[in-house]
Amino acid sequence: MFLLISRPFIISSRIFLLPRLKFLIQRHVSILNSDSTIRACFVLQILGTDTKNVTVQPSLILNSVSGTISANRSKAKLEQSLWEDALLDAQKVIELEPSSHVGYQLKHTALHGARRYREAVEAFQIMLAKLDSARGMQIRKLRDKYVSPSRAEGIIQKLIDVQLHTAPLRLLNTNTGLLCDREAQISAFKTTTEYEQLLLSIMKHADLPIERIADAVVAYFRYAMLSHRWGENEPLLHDIQDNDVYKLKAAGGLIKLQSFSKLARHAGYHWAWVDTCCIDQNNYVELQNSLNSMFSWYRRSALTVVYLSDVPPSSKSGALAKSAWNTRGWTVPEFLAPKVIRFYQKDWTPYLDDHSPNHRESVQIMDELEDATGIYERVLVAFQPGMRDARQKLQWVSTRATTIPEDIAYSLFGIFGIHLPILYGENAQNALGRLLQEIVARSGDITPLDWVGQPSEFNSCLPAHISSYAAPPRALPYLSEDQIQTAVSSLRHTAAVDQASKLHDQLVNMSAPRFANCRLRLPCIVFPVTEIRRSSGPDQEASSTYTVKADGLDDLSITTEENLIQFSRLRPTRRSFLLVRPWDRRLLEQPDFADEENLAGCPPPDDSDEVVSDLPGEEEIADSEPNSRALRLIVRLGQPFGAFLLAQQQGGEYKRIASDYDITAEVKNVSSVHAMMDIRTLEIL
Question: 240: alpha, beta or left, given left = phi > 0 and alpha = psi -120 to 50?
Fold first, then answer.
């Protein structure tokens, strides 16, 4: 019979047998020079095995012993970082014991140390195959510590898909100069040492935290984005596709593209994005998706580079504010969205010689940008998209321009967190109307209705052009809490209390404004107009001023380009005119949960900032007194307010009469609550 020595037994005994084996070999050299069977029996005796009536396979035993010696020698050299020497010994182990995993494990370690990662992965794969075919509980437990190559690749692929799902469709490879779609980006990653190292780490550590794997994927696919003003001869997609941009003739906009790509590469980013050449302008679906995703792409960029082509080298503070870049519509989301931003002059040197990693942390640059844009520094530093402070955001872009008129509205989609179809050719009024309609409908905020200028064809309550928001919102008198309390006390013992309570309940139950098919359903407090009389305005002038009287309101003047019908109680008209107060739920002094979920325009101010509000907090309202809330509402409704003049149309709907100035109205007598009881939801075209 043949006695087969168990390899696992020999392997597990190597450490303590080796010294004894070397000692006996040195003392019995003559035995080792004899017949191979005698040598094998000698080894068995060393191992403590009874050789009586036993026939052995000499080559198997000697190969195992030689393999043990080579394996220990390889381990010793690995500890000394002698990778090539360790690799030679590992290869010897593989030759002596080809069915064992040990040689491949040593080979993998040596290759990994020598940074020959691809070969290390191959060696590790063979090692796993040897473990899979081996028997024994200990070997199976060892195999369970590792992850198969296919599973490791699957884990990485899922994380890549997540990362690229929110990234631009195409990116420029800053190392090769080639424009890559997502498939090409993934292929490029799989050829890198970063990928091979990550693959090995997952295969060797089944319990490797997914966060560490995700961090490695994110680190590779980080990208830099360019914010700039388009110039002449900008390279488009078809100009650079399948070409190394570094090898193309440097001219016009291509110089800018090459310089930006080199800057991004020098900063450690594999990928870069430029709007001129990374979007297929002729693919309508791709263009629409790209414009709707633009804000989020800039938001997720690792770095946004602002190139000021008209700011010469060594410019002083103030040059940024004068740059043409600061007049364009698309640049607003491009500097609000990114978390890391750097400004560069014409020669690609940092603006103001500021080499800090993030210019958002530069007080000097942010102060200048605040002065140039009218956007508070704290907003510039930590902007969050959303519906809050809609009127203020519209003012930010009111003086800016875009090459394509509709783009002034499209550039705001990301700032408000809105996704709408991009419809080039629809005209600027329609594009702006769709945006404003969405803001009012989704947020219930009526401040976008506060404007002066020409009415839109989309809806008469909306402006025809973004410039109508250039003037600050109307400033109404501030009412202190002491003044409110005094006014409430004076109303408490009048006949107005019961009516105030009814009015309060009515307004609490009023629905929010709604848009549908360009029609605005606007909840209002209505004051019927009883007289319109022209007071000035020769025929040669574009505008005329009218004196307007309405039930329950003080008389007021309105200047408009429209030719209004003049009438009075003695000379009535069949056409109905109304002065209305759009209902603003903030007057109820209720907590605004939408604000808590959507802290958009302004992060919390510093303690040093002085904040003035005419609306007290929930805890400040004294609910202990009967009808307190209703009376507080009456006091606020008695203050001057921004009014709309509406003219009835043939179908019963209304149109807003645009005025040259804000219309500010005020009730005659705050205690005459009945004058404010006409509450309606009007349909406005």
Answer: alpha
Report d(CA 491, CA 629) in Å as an integer: 12
The span from the CA of 392 to the CA of 411, in Å, is 15
Question: Could you identify the residue written with the tokens 């942010």?
Answer: 366
- Determine contact, residues 655/460, Cβ cutoff 8 Å: yes
Tell me which amino acid residue 546 is.
Answer: Y
Residues 6+ positions from 301 with CB-CB distance below 8 Å: 223, 224, 225, 273, 338, 340
Within 8 A by CB and 6+ apart from 112, the residues are: 120, 200
Per-residue confidence band for 95, with pLDDT thresholds at 50, 70 and 90:
confident
Tokens of 278: 């990374």
Place of tokens 């002698």: 82
Q: What confidence tens digit (pLDDT) does each residue in 297-343 have?
A: 999 999 999 999 999 999 999 999 999 999 999 999 999 999 999 99
Q: What pLDDT sits at residue 625?
A: 56
271-289 residue pLDDT tens:
999 999 999 999 999 999 9
Give the pair of three-digit tokens for residue 161. Answer: 């898909």
C-alpha torsion sign, points 494, 495, 496, 501: positive
Give per-residue burial for 592-606: e unless 16+ CB within 10 Å, then b.
eeeeeebebbbeeee
In this prediction, residue 285 carries a pLDDT of 92
pTM summary value: 0.81
Over the stretch 201-234, which tens digit does the pLDDT of each residue have?
Answer: 898 888 889 999 999 999 999 999 999 999 888 9
Kindly state the helix (H) or strand (E) to which residue 388 belongs, with its residue range.
Answer: none
Q: Output DSSP code: residue 680.
A: E
- In 10 A of CB 144, how many CB atoms? 10
pLDDT in tens, 620-637: 444 445 588 888 988 888
How many Å apart are CA 93 and CA 63, to the nearest integer? 9
Measured distance CA(89)–CA(384) in Å, rounded: 60
What digits encode the pLDDT tens for the residues 573-600? 989 999 999 999 888 887 655 444 444 4
- How far apart are alpha carbons 126 and 138 in whole angstroms? 19
- Which residues does 573 contact at the CB level (< 8 Å), separation at least 6? 565, 567
Give residue-wise pLDDT tens across range 491-511: 887 767 888 888 888 899 999
Report the pLDDT averaged over residues 540-569: 91
Rounded CA separation 40/57 (Å): 8
Q: Provide the greatest CA pair distance for the chain.
A: 140
Angle at 479 between CA 475 and CA 484, to 5 degrees: 155
Q: Are strands 341-344 and 303-307 parallel, antiparallel or unpaired?
A: parallel
Closest by Cα among 5, 3, 6 to 134: 6
Instruction: Name the least confident of 14-23, 516-525, 579-588, 658-667.
Output: 14-23
Measured CA to CA, the distance from residue 204 to residue 328 in angstroms comes to 53
Give the chain's length: 685
Q: Tokens 């003086």, residue?
A: 399
Residue whose pair of structure tokens reads 């019908």 in the numeric block: 565
Beta-ladder partners of 644: 580
Task: Name the DSSP letter for residue 586.
Answer: G
CA 429 to chain centre: 28
Residue 320 C-alpha from the chain's centroid: 25
What is the number of helices (H) and of strands (E) in the chain? Answer: 26, 18
**Sequence-separated (6 or more) residues with CB below 8 Å from residue 73:** 89
